[in-house]
Design brief:
heterotrimer, A mainly alpha, B mainly alpha, C alpha/beta, A: mainly alpha, ABC transporter involved in vitamin B12 uptake, BtuC, about 0% strand, globular, C: alpha/beta, Rossmann fold, five-stranded parallel β-sheet, five-stranded mixed β-sheet, 14 helices, 14 strands, about 20% strand, transport (chain C), iron transport (chain C), iron (chain C), Bact_iron-sidero_bind (chain C), Iron complex transport system substrate-binding protein (chain C)
Chain lengths: ~325, ~325, ~300
């Protein structure tokens, strides 16, 4: 009961942040004009800025942040490791490889893309899923040892990264610039379609997440006790893992390699709301959304008129917290 | 000495010679010999002023990274400790980029110092955490902490460079090491500490052996565990810092070299220390030769080559041993 | 649904605003543009030069790759022009705020944001972004409704090329080598690059490894012997932190570089990176002709 109020506060804070993100930007629009534009009245410019530029951007930032945070929370639970995050499973680097393969495979000699660029997310998601699958298969032999999943993830991520670097050097100059921006993770080019992709993934995951909340809590017990409660441990773990990969792949495919959200948001959620899945998961999603929104707001304010990828600064937001976490874990272990 | 060890020793001069011969233009041993004796002409210049320095650099940096990995692995009893994976390289690179762009530092000496400082800072962070967690922190946890810290430091580097989009090309440069066309001016600064640490490691082999057992045994044998471990880690960090200053960040070499030395039959540190340095040098030479041919006429970054070759080794290690089990 | 109606409404609004519209076919399709656009936003460096050459001052432009924010050779003509980000990081909001009536971009750079740009104003996109800027120039002048003026600029330029080529005479039999220094790499430039196209039009011969329909080779110092020619032009991409310049100095003092025939003969020329490569437009092309005329001592 006592935690209901903070959760409401969090929702309110996120809404406030979203409103600020719609109102602020390279050309600040006063609140009354934002509201007018939202209702379809205001000036044409205001309407375009609000409807075609800021709202998709805000929606994508929020959805991608939420998806990454949920993915991280699920991963930390299934691996029982507080340091697990989507990028560690090779998902981000796999997606990056997918993007580069796309850019290079479909470019002709004059560097022209032979297919519309809207297909790029498909390849990113494909790369992400492929690497996550490879990691899972490799670790498959060692059932019930989630730690090995992460070790294989780290190794395959290093491989993918090496391939990415090589491709950037071999490939045409124009493309490597594009790839670098993608790698950093950006939402400033967002349109409604991008936000819709991630939102659809979140919607699809929602019913499963609701059903998983209970079993996920039981999973926190050790394997034997969890099994004794009649929980299909393997099935729960596999479902959570697949869900985690799918959410991360969806987010990464359109927003690029935004880092640290999947790592930090679940921790913050646990710290604030305890570790019951029914509270942790929604709180993590809200915090993740807030992190990316905040990061995007920060780059808009700090670097204008240049658009710097928001992913470049999520680390700055996540870093202090991560360091705090490391020292705390150290103390707990000691 | 074991047979594999002798083989490695014989391989080194052969590889060094090959490194002088192979590249965009392939030279015969005669041309190499003439060039080394001071012949004139473009070919001689290529061999003497370009291939010779990069060969020397590969030998030194390879040996340093190998030793660095060994010291980390022994001090933490962790078979997958390595400067690249644990974020030490990333710390050094970030420090250099920060030094250049924020503090306006210039010159090789300052860069070398920054790299060393960054490496030591990152080492303190990662291992401070590991050691605070008790001596028996599972290897995987250390790796995870290192990888995450590494990602954090890289994104710091990325922010600094991305702020100036025109400098994007340089990001690639700092993300990946190379032996070719590196200014050797840092050598007088980096060589003395590297040599000193190598000598110290050779003198302290017994301590390193004892460190690898467990704390109780070590104390009983009269070895101050904490102090020795700290010294080994600081030495490892300095080695990594020097290596980054010389050739940029290179991953996986420090991981693979000690294991290769063990495969070659080295059991205790009296054999491990020299053999690991030898393996590191051999691996660096092989990687450098591969880097010249992989995407010719361009040069592949060494760290991409070492990752392509080293990651499968890590995979094999993971499959052979039950490392991650906590 | 709401979005759909909104877009339709906006499109209607846009149509009403530009009564006399023309259709322009470009890389992303066909777009109706106003007859005489007055507020133009330009999203490529070479496009900025095209506009200036046609006497059109853009209301907004992406900043130059080097320079703060504009290249030296266009800075005085770009006063008061709003910076709207960089070629690969366009700031959409700033463009919207400028209320342009025409946006000109490039597919390679801005395909992803074509829809958003089109919502702001009619958007025309060129396809390639390589050596031959003339193709894009034609499209840009058509889009601006300045087809005739564009033809005039182009005719004048072509005439200059023909005159200079004649004046150069036998000098064009020289194999000219084009080298660029960047942080961490050296590039040997080939035919399908800005300098390559113009040198070819002038009739210059090129060394074997450069007489190739490609962009550039990315090499290290070992390839210095492959950089030789009867004459070498080199330029340095210097984003401002000294790394490019440092490499250039390192190579230029390297004994291997000094062993090149062109260097021994003193036929080596440091030229401006913006003019010879990075700016990539009609103004730079004219300046490059000036450079060549000056270097060969041909009065123009």
């Amino acid at each position: 009961m006592s935690r209901a109020a903070p959760m409401a506060l969090l929702v309110a804070a996120l809404i406030a942040l979203a409103i600020a993100a719609v109102g602020l930007g390279s050309t600040p629009i006063p609140p009354e004009r934002v509201i007018a534009a939202l209702l379809g009245w205001g000036e044409r410019t205001d309407q375009i800025v609000v409807w075609n530029l800021r709202l998709p951007r805000v929606a994508l930032a929020a959805c991608a942040g939420a998806a990454l945070a949920l993915s991280g929370a699920l991963l930390q639970r299934t691996t029982r490791n507080p340091l697990a995050s989507p990028s560690i499973l090779g998902i981000t680097d796999g997606a990056a490889l997918g993007v580069l393969v796309f850019l290079f495979a479909f470019s002709d000699e004059a560097n022209l893309l032979q297919v519309p660029v809207v297909w790029q997310p498909l390849f990113a998601a494909g790369g992400a899923a492929l690497f996550a699958l490879a990691v899972t298969l490799l670790a498959g032999r060692d059932r019930g040892d989630p730690m090995r999943l992460i070790l294989y993830g780290v190794t395959l991520a290093a491989l993918a990264h090496a391939a990415v670097v090589l491709m950037m050097i071999v490939g045409p100059v124009y493309r490597s610039g594009q790839a670098l921006v993608w790698l950093a993770g950006a939402v400033h080019q967002a349109e409604w379609r991008d936000a819709a992709i991630v939102a659809a993934a979140l919607m699809a995951a929602l019913p499963l997440l609701v059903r998983l909340a209970g079993p996920l809590d039981q999973l926190r017990l050790d394997g034997a006790s969890a099994f004794a409660t009649g929980l299909p441990v393997e099935a729960v773990r596999a479902t959570a893992l697949v869900l985690s990969v799918a959410l991360a792949a969806a987010a990464v495919s359109v927003a690029g390699g935004i880092g640290f959200v999947g790592l930090v948001a679940p921790h913050a959620a646990r710290l604030l709301f305890g570790s019951a899945a029914a509270r942790e998961l929604p709180a993590a999603a809200l915090l993740g959304a807030g992190m990316v929104l905040g990061a995007d707001l920060l780059v808009r304010a700090a670097f204008q008129p240049i658009e710097v990828p928001a992913g470049a600064v999520t680390a700055l937001i996540g870093a202090p917290y991560f360091l705090f976490l490391l020292t705390r874990m150290g103390r707990l272990n000691a | 000495m074991t047979r594999p060890a002798l083989l490695l020793l014989a391989l080194l001069p052969l590889l060094a010679l090959a490194s002088l011969q192979l590249g965009l233009t392939i030279y015969g041993p005669g041309e190499v010999w003439a060039a080394l004796r001071g012949a004139e002409g473009q070919d001689a210049l290529i061999i003497r002023t370009l291939r010779l320095p990069r060969t020397v650099l590969a030998l030194l940096v390879g040996a340093a990274l190998g030793l660095c990995g060994l010291l980390m692995q022994s001090a933490t009893r962790n078979p997958i400790a390595e400067p690249g994976l644990l974020g030490v390289n990333a710390g050094a690179a970030l420090a250099v980029v920060l030094g250049v762009s924020l503090l306006g530092l210039d010159g090789i000496a300052a860069m070398t110092l920054m790299a060393a400082a960054g490496a030591v800072a990152a080492t303190v962070l990662v291992f401070g955490l590991a050691l605070a967690g008790g001596p028996n922190l599972p290897p995987a946890h250390l790796l995870l902490a290192g990888v995450t810290l590494s990602a954090l430091l890289w994104s710091g580097t990325q922010v600094v460079i991305l702020l100036d989009e025109a400098a994007m090309e340089e990001l690639l440069f700092w993300l990946s090491g190379a032996f070719a066309d590196r200014p050797l001016a840092a050598l007088p600064w980096a060589l003395p500490p590297m040599a000193a640490i190598a000598v110290l490691a050779l003198l302290a082999t017994r301590r390193l052996d004892v460190l690898r057992t467990d704390d109780g045994t070590a104390e009983a044998l009269g070895v101050p565990v904490r102090a020795s471990r700290l010294a080994a880690l600081v030495a490892a960090a300095l080695l990594a810092g020097c290596a980054v200053a010389l050739a940029g960040p290179i991953a996986f070499l420090g991981l693979v070299a000690p294991h290769l030395a063990q495969l070659a039959g080295a059991r205790d540190h009296r054999a491990l220390v020299p053999l690991t340095m030898l393996c590191g040098a051999v691996l660096a030479l092989v990687a450098d030769i591969a880097a010249r041919h992989l995407i010719a006429p361009s040069e592949a970054p060494i760290s991409a080559v070492t990752a392509l070759a080293g990651a499968p080794v890590l995979l094999a290690l993971l499959r052979r041993r039950r490392l991650g089990t906590a | 649904m709401l979005r759909l109606t909104l877009t339709t409404a906006l499109a209607g609004l846009a149509l009403a605003g530009a009564a006399q519209a023309r259709e322009i076919t470009h890389a992303m399709g066909t777009t109706e543009v106003p007859d005489a656009p007055e507020r133009v936003v330009i999203l490529t460096n070479e496009g900025t030069e095209a506009l200036l050459a046609l006497g059109v001052a853009p209301v907004g432009a992406v900043q130059s790759w080097t320079g703060d924010p504009w290249y030296d050779h266009i800075a005085d003509r770009m006063q008061g022009v709003e910076v709207v980000g960089t070629e690969s990081g366009v700031n959409l909001e700033l463009i919207a705020a400028l209320e342009p009536d025409l946006i000109i971009g490039n597919q390679q750079r801005q395909e992803k944001i074509y829809d958003q740009l089109s919502a702001i104003a009619p958007t025309v996109m060129s396809q390639e972004l390589r050596g031959d800027w003339k193709v894009n120039f034609d499209l840009y002048s058509d889009a601006l409704g300045l087809g005739e003026e564009g033809d005039a600029v182009m005719a004048a330029f072509d005439q200059r090329v023909t005159d200079l080529s004649e004046d150069l005479g036998d000098a064009t039999e020289e194999e000219v080598s084009v080298i660029r220094f960047l942080a961490g790499q050296i590039r040997i430039y080939q035919l399908d690059s800005f300098s390559g196209v113009l040198l070819e039009q002038l009739g210059f011969a090129r060394p074997e490894n450069q007489a190739v329909e490609d962009f550039a080779l990315r090499v290290g110092k070992e390839s210095i012997p492959q950089m030789d020619g009867d004459r070498i032009f080199h330029f340095t991409y210097e984003p401002g932190d000294g790394e490019g310049e440092e490499l250039a100095q390192e190579v230029l003092t390297d004994p291997l570089w000094r062993s090149l025939e062109a260097v021994k003969a003193g036929d080596v020329h440091a030229v401006d990176d913006a003019v010879w490569n990075t700016a990539g437009g009609v103004i730079a092309a004219n300046l490059m002709l000036d450079d060549i005329a000056g270097i060969y001592g041909v009065a123009q």
